[in-house]
Design a protein that fits this description.
By secondary structure, this protein is α+β, with helices and mostly antiparallel strands. Helix content is 23%, strand content 31%. The chain contains 11 helices and 19 strands. α2 packs across α4 and α2 packs antiparallel against α6. The longest helix is centred in the first third of the chain and has 10 residues. The chain starts with 5 loop residues before the first strand and ends with a strand. The N terminus is likely disordered.
């Protein structure tokens, strides 16, 4: 089903990337650490705390020092005083024993945030051993991930966890919103006011007055809903080396493996000429800047775009048409056949 053409008004913005995973995690509930008994005892010893196990009076029952719960004490000991995230090796400390994570050490300009003493290069080896001995849930456990890992395996898993939140795919602004796909679709529609369309074919007309005066610009994002999935169509102008170009590309609102199940084509032309590009959409796991800088889409030299626009080449009037289809596996031959219908 071919859609009505849409007049898109351009605007310029900075296109700085925002790798928002750290900000996303800071807003998630922090999991309760589950240390082994040995780890809890080591943590208590590290700060001269005493863990009482079992009751009883007499000489063996009375223990000096504050009474603490092992899991609570380990949680508090491993909490960075600056970012409040759990600390993992390398863990640094000042001469007075105050600890800080390696990331925040540079943020505070090598000064202890508690006593203002110079941090230097002192490591807190006792707490590092505690952190290494812990088995921790994935930090996306509140989003449904049930996995539990030792520290080093945990970090690798979290960088690839399928349940980690997505960054907002909107280009042209530094949007730090994260969430799952239904949440981001609503966010794009209500907060960014993007064009939302249903169907697997599109026909867009991009317009820009005085295009030679603009080296960097991004047009309004468009979101398409087809095959039960959402796709983001990007179009923008930027410098490729010394040459000004326009580029159109599609991103899939989902993970990389699912994105490979779909193919899209883009076509632009005029004055008896046309250019066609075909490929798989990239996942929004890849940032807008990463996809753009890899030139993974339809790239049009500005002079060619103005030739397609016709007239005296003083105004950009570029019509981009395209379609999206899903590759279906043929159960008899194993070959993929295109499905062009939603």
């Amino acid at each position: 089903m071919e859609m009505d053409s849409i007049e898109c008004v351009s605007f310029s913005h900075g296109l700085d990337d925002d790798d928002g995973d750290d900000e996303a995690v800071s807003r998630l509930p922090r999991p309760l650490l589950k240390p082994s008994a040995a780890a809890a005892s080591a943590a208590a010893a590290a700060v001269n705390l005493v863990v009482v196990s079992g009751g009883g009076g007499g000489a063996g029952g009375a223990v000096a020092g504050p009474l603490i719960t092992p899991s609570t004490s380990v949680h508090e000991l491993l909490e960075c005083p600056v970012c409040t995230n759990s600390m993992y090796p390398p863990i640094h400390q000042c001469q007075n024993g105050h600890t800080i994570c390696s990331t925040c050490k540079t943020r505070v300009h090598n000064r202890c945030p508690t006593c203002r003493q110079e941090l230097g290069d002192i490591r807190c080896l006792a707490l590092e051993k505690v952190a290494e001995s812990l088995e921790l849930p994935c930090k996306y456990y509140s989003l449904g991930c049930p996995e539990i890992f030792p520290y080093y395996s945990k970090l690798k898993h979290e960088s690839q966890c399928n349940l980690r939140p997505y960054n907002c795919p909107y280009a042209g602004s530094e949007c730090s919103v994260v969430g799952d796909i239904p949440f981001l679709v609503t966010h794009l529609r209500d907060d960014h006011k993007v064009d939302m369309h249903s169907g697997c074919t599109f026909n867009h007309r991009y317009v820009k007055s005085n295009p030679r005066e603009v080296e960097n610009a991004t047009w309004m994002l468009t979101v398409f809903h087809c095959f039960g999935q959402y796709f983001c169509l990007h179009f923008e102008a930027f410098q490729l080396g010394m040459a000004p170009v326009y580029m159109a590309f599609l991103r899939f609102m989902g993970d990389e493996n699912d994105a490979r199940s779909y193919t899209y084509s883009l076509e632009v032309g005029g004055n008896g000429r046309k250019m066609i590009w075909e490929g798989n959409p990239r996942s929004i796991r890849d940032s807008h800047r990463k996809v753009r800088d890899s030139h993974d889409g339809l790239v049009i030299q500005r002079n060619m775009a103005l030739f397609f626009s016709g007239g005296e080449r003083k105004e950009l009037k570029l019509r981009v048409t395209g379609r999206i289809w899903r590759e279906q596996q043929n159960p008899d031959s194993g070959a993929c056949i295109p499905n062009l219908f939603s």
